[in-house]
Write a structure and sequence with these properties.
The structure is a homodimer. By secondary structure, chain A is α+β, with helices and mostly antiparallel strands. Chain A contains 10 helices and 11 strands. The first copy, chain A, has 3 domains: 106 residues, Hypothetical Oxidoreductase Yiak, Chain: A, domain 1, CATH 1.10.1530; 192 residues, Malate/L-lactate/L-sulpholactate dehydrogenase, NADPH binding domain (Ribosomal Protein S8, Chain: A, domain 1, 2-Layer Sandwich); 35 residues, Hypothetical oxidoreductase yiak, domain 3 (Wheat Germ Agglutinin (Isolectin 2), domain 1), CATH 3.30.60.50. Helix content of chain A is 37%, strand content 16%. The radius of gyration of chain A is 20 Å and the shape is globular. At the A-B interface, β3, β4, β7, α7 and α8 of A face β3, β4, β7, α7 and α8 of B.
């Protein structure tokens, strides 16, 4: 699998041009492209330009509304709902986060539920908007039902990511952006492309049996929650995924559980949906809600420095703080360009042809 | 291992009497006893009367102040700090939660950081106070450093539990109360008492090697984060434990990471502590911050009912919703009494003798 490095700026403009052709406003196209490219820059290849095709498919099927009329209703001084009018989540989530930050500046914390939305890309983009305001950010979303509850054998939950980020002073911010499943689908896709089997504890086949097959999700298989099995705490991973689902779907009036309209092409939406679209939950806390901000930042620096010097496990250089690997990747890719696998590159060129846009990075 | 069933009311009065003898006010002794007995009722034997001896030890060593002068400072409309003046966490955490609920009633959400505190028992007690107000509750705490970060081989974090609870209408509330390690110390103690080995993925020995020894923590060993190894997402469990540590310790000005003063007797406090005591973080959201409360509760009921009917895994009767096992145990133990293991029973009688209190359940 060879790859070609392409500058993020080129890809961003390219995505933007396509989304404008699909009916997005310049502002929404720009924001969407920014979210996708942030994923590519941070090394989350599964959530970057590789996903553009999926978004285009949903725009064309009418699931994503390119010209949404989003309505925000504030019901409490720290809480409000954004009905996203079937917007792409790449747009609804950051706009909701800005509302949350406004409320947070007023009363110390702010929370926005988002209903009637679609796939929002990487959670970190939205949560990290808080960092610019020296605030703590939180973002979560439900997603295509692919994960079985602990003790179950049915696809009921998405990989339901949650992201929490906390600013420091001189050190990099703490940015935890994690799926609540043992492995995200992207990891199975990579194993598939490399012709590798997957480890026990990632997935089950459609009858609930153990499997090493990376293509199992396309055969009715399911992902396992973080913890993998009952002995290692799968009920905790299930609980976390359920928390994210309830906050994203139940609180806001979006769909939840098995009713979440799928992003992946091999699933179909279920009938009798109880809510609107998919849901997200975003919000923030002020960093100085308990004590002086400089004191908090100083301790945050010390926390990070102490944890970096943890005695490493055998064969490991040092313990990485959540967010560090993505930061280093971002720095590298911003300078060298984003490595686009040749198969994906061919694919992007085909898309370019469809829109009669030259693809000359 | 035989056991005797003892009524919760008797044990609660008994704990209260002892704490009053140790200098607690009647109110604080009553609240502390209520938290401990709630753990026993819910089947969390490791956090109930079995822990009384540990609390007494810390009262006598001066780490727990029986007559604290706790000071609450509200810095934002939704955020404030409780300096617990070395109170037992069994008292500081529920009182802080009541402050959070007051703020939540005003602005939709409320958050209290607690510094200078001590072990707070089960997180669920504090978070569940929100349920009585139809609110969502959150509680977390840091704890004795016993868990290694992913990629590390050093005891840096506690089992750092987090609890989130969400009310329903006719169904039981959702109550997720989980340690962020693969297994809590209590599980190793149980294996030890039963003469069983522990599974791979729970702990490492003091040099970072794999182990099946349930006594390994007393030999310098360490617990593993939820996810257990790099292939199964240990960096996620580490990230969650770190989140809880930062929210509990760094934000509030309590200690964090390896500096958290230990509750377990086989660890000693480290020098140069950066903060005060141990820290907690509690708070709540209004259930109707995004839309009508009846609509949310109805969907919550439907969420629970749908997940209960998940196709079960082979050999499993049905999927349990977080909080259900503890609820059923509570119901059973409230009626039949709490099963106290004979060795613990002897121990409680010895304590009773020390205080010249009859132990006649």
């Amino acid at each position: 699998m060879g790859f070609t490095r392409i500058k993020a700026d080129f890809l961003k403009d390219w995505v933007e041009t396509i989304l404008v052709q699909e009916g997005f406003s310049q502002e929404h196209a720009n924001l969407s492209a920014d979210v996708l490219l942030m994923a590519d820059l941070r090394g989350i290849d599964s959530h970057g330009v590789a996903r553009l095709e999926g978004y285009i498919r949903l725009i064309r099927s009418g699931q994503i509304n390119p010209k949404p009329n989003m309505v925000f209703t504030q019901r409490k001084k720290s809480m409000g709902l954004l009905n996203a009018d079937s917007a792409i989540g790449l747009v609804s989530a950051p706009l909701a986060m800005l509302k949350a930050i406004e409320m947070g500046k007023e009363v110390g914390s702010g929370w926005v539920g988002i209903s009637n939305s679609n796939h929002f890309g990487i959670a970190a983009y939205h949560a990290m908007l808080a960092l610019e305001h020296s605030m703590i950010g939180l973002a979560m979303t439900n997603a295509s039902p692919l994960v079985t509850p602990a003790g179950g054998s049915e696809r009921m939950l998405g990989t339901n990511p949650l992201c929490i980020c906390i600013p420091a002073a001189e050190e990099l911010p703490f940015v935890l952006d994690m799926a609540t499943s043992a492995a995200a689908n992207g990891k199975l896709e990579i194993a598939d492309r490399l012709g590798k089997s997957i480890p026990r504890g990632w997935a089950l086949d459609n009858s609930g049996g153990e499997t090493n097959d990376p293509t199992i999700l396309k055969q009715g298989g399911m992902l396992l929650p973080l913890g993998s099995d009952s002995e290692h705490g799968a009920h905790k991973g299930f609980g976390l995924g359920a928390w994210v689902d309830i906050f994203s779907g139940v609180l806001s009036g979006a769909n939840y559980g098995p009713w979440v309209p799928p992003f992946v092409q091999f699933l179909h939406a279920q009938n009798d949906q109880p809510g609107l679209g998919i849901g997200h939950f975003v919000g923030c806390w002020e960093l100085d809600g308990f004590r002086d901000i400089q004191a908090v930042k100083k301790d945050m620096d010390q926390w990070i420095r102490r944890f970096k010097t943890t005695v490493p496990a055998s064969g490991i250089e040092r313990v990485m703080i959540p967010g560090e690997p993505e930061y280093f990747e971002h720095k590298k890719r911003a300078s060298l360009g984003i490595p686009i696998e040749n198969s994906l590159l061919q694919h992007l060129k085909l898309i370019s042809d469809q829109y009669s846009i030259p693809f000359n990075p």
